[in-house]
Amino acid sequence: MRLILNILWFVFGSGFVLAIAYGIAALICFALIITIPFGVAALRLAVYSLWPFGRTIVSRPDAGVASGIANVLWVVVAGWWLALSHIAAGIAQCVTIIGIPFGIANFKLVPAAFWPLGREIVDLD
């Protein structure tokens, strides 16, 4: 079932578009050198937005103070509007019965988009 939902998400649920957008953001962050940690976080979001079903986000226990400070900077610059866009897309997709799983996938992306550093994506198994 997860495979079917992931394929449908990739094609119809904006998974491909989100992955491209996060990938472009990562390339820009890598080009600016000082923002490389944000580029790594954007790549993590790109991979997660490609196949969100069957995976979840967990906090890394070894995340330190630097990732917390960088997350505060991320929230100010990009995190709040990324989280709001995922919430708005999730609400819009939950309007129809067919779109409810896609809306839930967008809601799963909110914490990662808001506070990405110090987290990792793991399989549910």
From TrEMBL:
Residues 4-55, 69-119 form the Inner membrane component domain. InterPro entries: Inner_membrane_protein, UCP028777, YccF. The keyword Membrane applies. Keywords: Membrane, Transmembrane, Transmembrane helix. The chain crosses the membrane at residues 7-24, 30-51, 63-81, 87-107. This is Inner membrane component domain-containing protein. It comes from Paractinoplanes deccanensis. The lineage of its organism: Bacteria, Bacillati, Actinomycetota, Actinomycetes, Micromonosporales.
